[in-house]
Amino acid sequence: MNAHQSLAIGQPLETLEAISPAAVEADPMVRFAGISKTYPAYRGKPGVNALQDIDFAIPRGSITGVIGRSGAGKSSLVRLINGLEKPTTGHVIVDNREISALAGRELRLAQRSIGMIFQHFNLLSSRTAADNIALPLEIAGWSKADIKTRVAELLALVGIADKHDRYPSELSGGQKQRVGIARALATRPSVLLSDEATSALDPQTTRAILDLLANINRELGVTIVLITHEMSVVRQLARDVVVLDAGHVVESGHVADIFTHPRHPITQSFLAEAIGDSLPVSLQSRIVAEPPVGGQAVIRVQVRGAGAGDTLVARLARELGLDVALLSARIDEIGGQHVGSLVLGIPLGIPGGEGAVTRTLAWLSQYQFSAERLGYVA
Ligand SMILES: Nc1ncnc2c1ncn2[C@@H]1O[C@H](COP(=O)(O)OP(=O)(O)OP(=O)(O)O)[C@@H](O)[C@H]1O
């Protein structure tokens, strides 16, 4: 049972509160209970149901990815966590406090324990790196001496101690995001929200920032919620994932479970993008619909699970006595599991002879491999 299943979906808050302490993750960092969010009609524009029937929990200390296409409701969800938006129905609980019920000073105090980083960093251009990081501490009323010590600590933590006096215009994208992360962590939050924080960065810098977030999670125990439309971010960093589509949670659970057995088409499409499930162009252009004499049937086999595809071609060739060709293979690792596909060429033998193909498909199905026939090559 995973964290999300352990919190009974759709139960009202009172029932959720009664969950036995024996359920390890019954004390999550964030809980959405019966949430919907509707933006009202405005100046002739119709109202929008941005979120509906949202019931899930984010485990304490986890890194949870919230993935969805544009307009799926990701930002609305994240604004509910830090209380910038109120739900239309339901409750949002953060660290055992109902943030959705707070207002004014109480809300501002609660928001200090929820840090946030942004795609475009949101730094003040007129302040140095150190002064940007100091800002939330000034607002929280820290003394000058305490701010100085804390800012030095934070700059070192994010690996830019030497950029203390630099202005944002003098920093690279990755360095600016490091300042953003230090600022978000200044008041020692228990939750860090990341809204597409690496979307404006190149792949190498993205990798470095994701590594930094992983260290922060490990060393400080901060729960991280990553909003993203990029599967690669979830794959590199998250242990848990919530897939949003049109305002609904369509799947949630451990990354390895969800992406080795994706059920919803939107999850399948994210996975296909992540592992480059498309065929190589040279192969694609050779595939025809009718079996050519002496050709091969092209079969794509999905590989899901630890070591799932390792011996497949050898076993298939041995057990069925076939000269199986490996036309293309793409296998990646997600959450420690192999995910990808093998494209096999099965010799047709005599003209129109489909016996080998039928036997191959039956053999694959016997071993629970999902397979499809894509066509034929000469
Ligand atoms: N303040 C608002 N007023 C009215 N409609 C809004 C508001 N904020 C968001 N919406 C609408 O709610 C829906 C969900 O938007 P949201 O920004 O939460 O999605 P998203 O998944 O974050 O999208 P993106 O990746 O493009 O930022 C969209 O249809 C959007 O137009």
TrEMBL record:
PROSITE patterns, sorted: ABC_TRANSPORTER_1 (PS00211), ABC_TRANSPORTER_2 (PS50893)
Regions that span the bilayer: none
InterPro entries: AAA+_ATPase (IPR003593), ABC_transporter-like_ATP-bd (IPR003439), ABC_transporter-like_CS (IPR017871), ACT-like_dom_sf (IPR045865), MetN_ABC (IPR041701), MetN_ABC_transporter-like (IPR050086), NIL_domain (IPR018449), P-loop_NTPase (IPR027417)
Domain ABC transporter, first and last residues per copy: 30-271
Gene Ontology BP, a term: amino acid transport
Pfam families, alphabetized: ABC_tran (PF00005), NIL (PF09383)
Cellular compartments per GO CC: plasma membrane
UniProt KW Zinc-finger keyword: no
Family: Belongs to the ABC transporter superfamily.
PANTHER family assigned to the protein according to its UniProt record, in alphabetical order: AMINO ACID IMPORT ATP-BINDING PROTEIN, METHIONINE IMPORT ATP-BINDING PROTEIN METN
Protein name: Cell division ATP-binding protein FtsE
Organism: Bradyrhizobium cosmicum
Lineage, opening ranks: Bacteria, Pseudomonadati, Pseudomonadota, Alphaproteobacteria, Hyphomicrobiales
